Amino acid sequence: MGSTNSTLSKIPNVEELMQETGFTPAHIVRLYDRFEALDKEKTGHLRPQDFGAINRLAMNPIGDRIIGAFFSPGQETVDFHSFVRILAHFRPADKKHPKDPSMPEPVNSRTSKLKFAFQLYDQDKDGKISRAELLQVLRSMLEMQVTEEQLESIADRTIQEADLDKDDAISFEEFRKSLEKVNIDHKMSIRFLR
Amino acid sequence: MYISHLWERQCLCCCVNSVSLSIPLPHSLSVSGIIAKELSSLEQEIQELRASGTTLSSEPEFEMADIMYFCRRGVESIVDDEVTKRFSAQELESWNLLTRSNFNARHISLRLSVLWGLGLFIRYSFLLPLRVTLAASGIGLLVVLTTIVGFIPSGWTYLSEKIHLMSYRICVRSLTAIITYHNSENKPKNGGICVANHTTPIDVIILANDGCYSMVGQIHGGLIGVVQRAMVKSSPHIWFERSEVKDRHLVAERLSNHVADKTKHPILIFPEGTCINNTSVMMFKKGSFEIGCTVYPVAIKYDPRFGDAFWNSSKFGMVNYLLRMMSSWAIVCSVWYLPPMSREEGEDAVQFANRVKAAIATQGGLVDLLWDGGLKRGKVKNTFKEEQQKLYSKSSINATGWPLK
Question: Where are the domains of chain B?
C-alpha cells in the first residue's frame, strides 16, 4: 500500500533525478530495487566488485570498460544517483519534445549516446581515440581469435577511413561522422517496461 | 479444530478451482522484467551494423560501431540479468492482496485497500494461529511416534510408514498446501533415486505427503536435529555429519549402499543444491547421477497467485519464511511424476543429468538454464568470455587469406 511512496521517500532528491533523467517513478523504484540487489553489503554505494558479480557482464568482452564508465575518474564507489544518470543514457530518445536549443542536451539524445560509446574507446579521456586505444578495444573483443598483426592491420585501416584531419587519432567529430548512418537510438537504447 | 480446518480447506479449494481448472501452463504466468530484451543474436546485429557501415569493400570487417552491441548487452545485464533474478521471488501480473507481492508499487485504490485490510485480518487472526497449532502438533506427533516405534525391535516398517505419512499430511494441512499429483503410476519405487527441482524446504513435505522417501542431508543442531534423529530411529534416512559432507566418495558409497538394499525407500535428492525461484531449473550437480541406478524425475511447480513459496535464504531466515508461508492464502502446487530414466550407453553423468533436467523443465514449464545455482555466491568462468569473442570474430572478421584460429 503506497510502497511506491515509501521507496521513493527513501531516495534523496528524487524529483530532481526524475527531471534530469526522464525516468518515471515506477522506473526509479525498480532501479532502486536493482541497486539494492547489487549492493549486497548494504553500504548504499556500488563498487566495481559488485558489478563484477553479474555473470553476463563478466562474460562480456568489454565488461570491464562498461563498469569503468560508471565510475568518475578518481571515484571508487558509485551512488544511486550516478547509477541512474549513467543508465539514463540508454533510455530511448524522446520523440515528442521538439529540439530546444536553449535547453541543455538531454541525457539520452543521439549525441549523448555517441559520447558514451566514444568514452568506451577513449579511456584516457583526452578527447581522441589513439591507435593504441583502438588496439586495446580490438584486443578485448577478439583476444585469441586473431593474431597481433591482424589486429594492427584492422586498427590501421579503421583509422585510415575515419581520420579526416590525418592526426593519426579519431576525434569525437570524426567518430560521429563515421557513424552517421548507424541507427544509434536503436543500438544504444534499452526499452524500459512500464 | 480439525473440522474447522476441513472447512477452511474446502473454501480455499473452491477458490482455487474457480480461478483455474488446473494449474495453467506456466507460460501464461510470464515473468516481466524491468526491460524488454532484444532477441536478436550477435550475428544479426553485426550484419545490421555492416549494412549501415562505411567500408566500401564487400568483405565483412571491423566497424567502430560494433562496440555498441556489447555495450548495450552489458548495460542490459546490469539492469536485469537471467541468473540474479532467479534468486528473488517471481513477479505476478495481477495483485493477490498480499503486500509482499506488490513489487512495482501500483497505486492501490480505496476499495482495494479495504479488501486488503479484510484479507489481512482473516489471514493473521484466523488462518495463522490455526496453522501454527497444526504445524506444532504435526511435528510433535512425528517426533514422539517415531521414537516410540524405534523402540519396537522388529522395526514395524508398515507402522513407521503410516506414522510418517500421517505427520506429513498434518504438516501439509498446516500450510494449506493444495497439491495435485499427476501421473502417480510413475511414483518412485524402492531402490531408486528421486530427483526434483528445488524451490523451498517445503518441497520435501510436499513429496513426502504422497509416498515414503529416505531423506539425505546434513545433520543440524537444535529443533531440526531433534526431528532428524527421531526420524532415523524408525526408518533409514541418510544424515551426514558436517565433516562427512565434503567427502564425495563417502557420500557416494552411502548412497549406493542404500540404493542396493531393495527394502529401503527411494532416496530424495535435489540436485540443484540451492533454492531457485520456480521459474527455471539450474544446473544439476552430477553426484547423484553417477551412482548408476534408476532415476525418477519429479517436477514441482507452484502457483504463485496464492502465496509465493520460494525461500530467499539471503533475505529471510527459516522462521520468518515459515511465518510468511502460513500467513499467505495457500500454497498451491502441481507435482508431476515423470517416467523413470537410466543412464544410457556412452552417456556420462553430466549428459545424463542434463537430460533429466531438460525433462523436468519441459514438464513443469520452467526455463532450462545451464547456469550453476552456486553462482548465487560465486563467479563465472573465463570460457564463457572466450565463447563471446569467438562468436564475434566469426561474424565480423573474415578477410581473405587470414587463417582464423
Answer: 2-83+379-394, 110-368
